[in-house]
Design a protein that fits this description.
By secondary structure, the chain is of the alpha/beta class. The chain is 41% helix and 14% strand. Strands 1, 2, 3, 4, 5, 6, 7, 8 and 9 form a 9-stranded mixed sheet that branches. Strand 6 and strand 7 (319-320) form a beta hairpin. It comes from Brevundimonas abyssalis TAR-001.
């Protein structure tokens, strides 16, 4: 087993230098492969080495669940002793939260409460939250008490106060906070260089008005809003226009045929004029200070690219996370970048149906360096938790439970494309529509 361990590759992964880790032998280290989310390769390596599988049980469980072998993962997990770290419980949480709870021996009451709630033990979760603190505990309380405004309001406030942001409040106080029923107080109006906000949209009429207003109501006032209707078959474009209410900053771009979210983004990107470009999905509500916060952090840290986190909320106001906890998750749809250098060196999004926002983010990290691309812990958006989204649907996302095989294969292929071009960065610049490697058929339109 010792011959498979590669501390240099693991260090490079911690430094977010994925391609360098692959170049330094990560392919020979199943733990490194798991941490790179190359789960098929990790599973095969750990299948061949039972000693490594026992030594690194979390990586074993992740690789099994990611490759559709959840039953084997759960059987293996039952043989393990509880651990004080989060990782084992989190690896199990989406598949068997009750089992995950028995494997967690740590002190984090908010994680324990989240597992209890996912296992259907609401009363136990409430008791655990009595001793929990921090934003994750606050968001769990907001979710549990979503139909009680007197309790939910303070919980939302406690959660967002960790980032000195005003909390979302319900527009209609008779209903819980959701993407279509949220407002917040922004800071004073901010002026500065132009930001191009790009929103692709298809058949999102239920959410699109709230999404559009959340962009136009940003405290950062100098923006152009490029809304791309991707050949919707509902009244999506009409609702977006109505929500914009004649605002001259809003531009509707109509696609004559469906091309997918990344093709739509590219259509807008070709027309963007802003110093920065920000993207947002049409089933998301953005905090009114989202853009101002991102610009401030980018300026302070001299970043080329930045993204934040989201909370996923269903129509009834319940907060969800694919892995149960934490409830705040990285949201590639909060991407903001400097337009001129990124277009010069990275170019356009890869035009597939799903997963290309991850590829683009890691392409930027590789081209500009980890210090020039940062992910904030700040929750900048509320996103709709729904079964038919790109990440929720069975054919394009994780709706079947665990990782979707086509997305997993796509992750592998772009990872190796990046790695092959570690010393030829100019190859990573994509023109719109370019297909530099073979993608799974199901995610190619």
């Amino acid at each position: 087993m010792s011959g498979l361990m590669n501390p240099i590759a693991r260090l490079l992964i911690r430094q977010r230098r994925r391609s360098a880790a692959l170049a330094m032998g990560a392919l020979r280290d199943p733990v490194a492969l798991s941490r790179l989310e190359l789960h098929r390769l990790a599973a095969r390596a750990l299948d061949r080495d039972p000693a490594a599988a026992r030594a690194f049980p979390v990586e074993r469980i992740r690789s099994l669940t990611a490759t559709g072998r959840a039953g084997e993962a759960l059987d293996f997990a039952r043989t393990l002793a509880p651990r004080p770290e989060h990782d084992l419980a989190l690896a199990l949480s989406a598949f068997d939260p009750a089992l995950a709870l028995t494997k967690y021996a740590g002190p984090d009451a908010s994680l324990r409460a989240a597992l209890m709630l996912a296992a259907g033990c609401e009363d136990d979760a409430r008791r655990a939250l009595d001793t929990a603190s921090g934003p994750q505990a606050a968001f769990l309380r907001a979710s549990l008490d979503r139909h009680d405004p007197a309790r939910a309001g303070p919980a939302w406030r406690d959660g967002f106060s960790a980032w000195s942001l005003s909390p979302p409040e319900p527009v209609d106080p008779a209903l819980p906070v959701s993407v279509v029923n949220a407002r917040a107080d922004g800071s004073l109006a901010v002026d500065g260089p132009l930001i191009s906000v790009i929103m692709p949209s298809r058949n999102a009429s239920r959410w699109v008005a709230a999404a559009v207003r959340s962009v136009l109501d940003q405290s950062w006032r100098n923006l152009e809003f490029l809304f791309v209707d991707d050949a919707s078959t509902d009244d999506n474009a009409d609702r977006a226009l109505a929500a914009a209410d004649g605002d001259p900053r809003f531009t509707l771009i109509r696609q004559s045929a469906r091309g997918g979210a990344y093709t739509a983004r590219n259509a807008a990107l070709a027309r963007a004029k802003g110093h920065w470009v920000a993207v947002q999905d049409s089933d998301e509500w953005a905090h009114p200070d989202r853009l101002a916060r991102q610009v401030a952090e980018m300026r302070a840290r001299r970043l080329t690219a930045h993204s934040g986190r989201s909370l996923r909320v269903d129509a009834e106001g319940e907060i969800h996370a694919r892995g149960v906890w934490p409830l705040t998750r990285w949201a590639p749809s909060t991407l903001m970048f400097e337009r001129a250098p990124v277009m010069e060196r990275a170019g356009y999004f890869h035009q597939v149906l799903s997963g290309a926002d991850n590829e683009y983010w890691w392409r930027l990290v590789q081209l500009f360096g980890p210090r020039r691309a940062a992910i904030s812990r700040t929750p900048l958006i509320l996103g709709a938790w729904r079964a038919d989204s790109l990440t929720g649907a069975k054919d394009s996302g994780f709706g079947a439970g665990g990782f979707n095989l086509d997305r997993l294969i796509y992750w592998e292929r772009w990872s190796f494309w990046h790695a092959r071009n570690l010393r030829t960065p100019e190859v990573l610049r994509l023109e719109a529509g370019a297909q530099p490697f073979r993608s799974p058929k199901k995610i190619v339109l």
